[in-house]
Amino acid sequence: MATTAEHLHCVIIGSGPAGYTAAVYAARANMNPVLFTGKDPGGQLMITNDVENYPGYPSGIMGPEMMEDFRKQAERFGTQIRYELINKVDFSGPVHKLWTESDQEIHADAVIISTGATAKWLGLDSEKKFWSKGVSACAVCDGFFFRGQEVAVVGGGDTAAEEATYLAKLCPKVHLIVRRDQLRASKIMQERVLNAENIVIHWNSETLEVLGENEVEGVKLLNNKTNETSVIPVKGFFVAIGHQPNTDIFKGWLDMDETGYLKTVPGRTLTNIEGVFASGDAQDNIYRQAVTAAGTGCMAALDAERYLAAKGVI
User: Fold this and answer.
1) Which of 40, 69, 109, 142 is catalytic?
2) Which of 182, 210, 239 finishes a domain?
3) Does the active-site annotation cover 142?
4) Among candidate residues 189, 220, 239, the one where a domain is terminated
5) What is the C-alpha separation between 105 and 187, in angstroms, rounded?
6) Based on the structure, what is the number of domains in the chain?
7) What is the pTM of this model?
8) Active-site residue 255, yes or no?
């Protein structure tokens, strides 16, 4: 026997800063939002120790604690939070269909997507061991903690070049570990890296291991041309090989760029499907900060409110 579909006014998919902020605004606008957390409630900040660049926390805050504050605020205004994953959608009709991992069918008048993006990693055990203990995927987030210390950045594209040049303003020496004999970064970013006196490039090099006891103390490299190994002493190790937006379930429905980031109307959160809005890192391949994600979560809720009001739903 088929299960009756549940009809909801506003569904929010994802539970990072974008999703929870959208929930606060949607709930206060009487949209009765239901937020599906996904498999990683709280998103990337749940594996982030110190957050010092989010306004309102003058002494800093642990990432999980901040996400708990976000969740409580969303619930305070009536958001219903479900610890489930949405794993299938159908945006072909005026009512948007979604299915949970337990195969519950949901019909939504408006959908706000805030599924985020996941940093790509090298896959080293030592990389996991020192995550938030010297290993990071965001120089803007964590570079402040390494002022006056030597650090390493791995990667050869624009992300790595941007991270290296940012860190070069804070650190006496930045080691850029590049797997090939040239950078993949854009011409202007290459020039910035090559012109920085305190950026040392290790060409044809791969990371074998992040070294240390309780925190990062160095990195062991392999030269893939000579097969020689070397160790560079650093206190911070930044992985900058890109991010993967968590948008696979929307393929075939929503417009994306070549790497999977959702396309929205410039300055808005509207997607190519009416009534579906995208916020946070799922549609932001430039800034990827908690505060910008929260801002677009607010925008998505306001866009959804106007859409539902125009339809006479609320």
Assistant:
1) 142
2) 239
3) yes
4) 239
5) 49
6) 2
7) 0.86
8) no
